[in-house]
TrEMBL record:
The lineage of its organism: Eukaryota, Metazoa, Chordata, Craniata, Vertebrata. This is Sideroflexin-5. The chain crosses the membrane at residues 75-96, 108-129, 168-185. It is found in: Mitochondrion membrane. Signal peptide: none annotated. It comes from the Eukaryota. It comes from Pterocles gutturalis. It holds the Pfam family SFXNs. GO terms for biological process: amino acid transport; mitochondrial transmembrane transport. Keywords: Amino-acid transport, Membrane, Mitochondrion, Transmembrane, Transmembrane helix, Transport. It is a multi-pass membrane protein.
Length: 187
């Protein structure tokens, strides 16, 4: 329980909505907003912004703080994630609406899946922009006793890749399964 509440590097308490254990309960209302049918441009922008704001706070609260990064790096990651999420979501929605080859029912079905690529790509963008200095400087490597034995760019690459993959997989069940289930129920 203590490890879920206290940051391992800073020994500070992580604010509940930004703990990894709070990711689902606090992120679920946002996901519901992302999946609302008949989104307007404003609602698409709002829900993508809110989702990336929450993700950025989770990323910051659970960051690797052994080698502090300037706040500008986190702001850069946040802005990159928001811009990529909004751009992809709005762009895909426009493309789907203009796709004359699809029936309205097919367009609606495809449109239900738009939040996932927008969120997944923005999450990757956020992680890479916020933590890219770790690739240059490396991250601390610890022995079995928790003592620092060195710094490794290879470990940083693995950590960044695993984090990015996790940020793609985490939203998958809640952004992909509901559209599939809804299309089956509607049939």
């Amino acid at each position: 329980v203590l490890q879920a509440i206290i940051h391992p590097d800073t020994n500070e308490t992580i604010f509940m909505p930004f703990r990894m254990s709070g990711y689902i309960p606090f992120g679920t209302p946002i996901v519901v907003g992302l999946l609302l049918p008949n989104q307007t441009l404003a609602s698409t922008v709002f829900w993508q912004w809110l989702n990336q704001s929450h993700n950025a706070c989770v990323n910051y609260a659970n960051r690797n703080a052994t080698k502090p990064s300037p706040t500008s790096k986190f702001i850069q990651g946040y802005l990159g994630a928001v811009i990529s999420a909004v751009s992809i979501a709005v762009g895909l929605n426009v493309l789907i609406q203009r796709a004359n080859k699809f029936t309205p029912a097919t367009r609606l079905l495809i449109q239900r899946f738009v939040p996932f690529p927008a969120v997944a790509s923005a999450n990757i963008c956020n992680v890479v922009l916020m933590r890219h200095t770790e690739l240059e400087e490396g991250i601390d490597v610890l022995d079995n006793n928790g003592n620092i034995v060195g710094s490794s760019r290879i470990a940083a690459k693995h950590a960044l890749l695993e984090t990015a993959l996790t940020r793609v997989v985490l939203p998958m069940p809640i952004l992909v399964l509901p559209p599939i289930i809804m299309s089956i129920l509607e049939k």
